[in-house]
Write a structure and sequence with these properties.
The chain is of the alpha/beta class. Helices cover about 55% and strands about 10% of the residues. The chain contains four helices and three strands, in the order βαβαααβ.
């Protein structure tokens, strides 16, 4: 079974805390789990393009991606990357676009 958990909310609303709890729960059940924040995807892409990482560059790049590919683009990129890199374990995504 493939399980995806997406957490959404305002900045500093506790998404990371909930992700920590879910990750610990998965570990206690000996379930392999991968946690990924959508901002991690933006950071990855900025590094690939040689763009310095700042709050402004993260926001601008996210907006550019959404404009080019539509809402939900970061979640789609993350799921695609995880299918390639870790072959379908349960996935916790922190910061899913609303």
């Amino acid at each position: 079974m493939i399980l995806y958990v997406g957490l959404t909310g305002l900045p500093a609303s506790g998404k990371g805390t909930v992700a920590d709890i879910l990750e610990e729960w998965a570990n206690q059940l000996s379930v392999r789990c991968f946690r990924y924040s959508l901002s991690d995807e933006i950071r990855y892409r900025l590094r690939e393009e040689g763009i310095p990482i700042s709050r402004q560059s993260l926001t601008q790049h996210a907006n550019d991606l959404r404009k080019a590919y539509g809402s939900g683009v970061l979640a789609r990129f993350v799921v695609h990357r995880m299918h390639q890199e870790i072959q379908f374990p349960p996935l916790i995504m922190d910061g899913v676009e609303q």
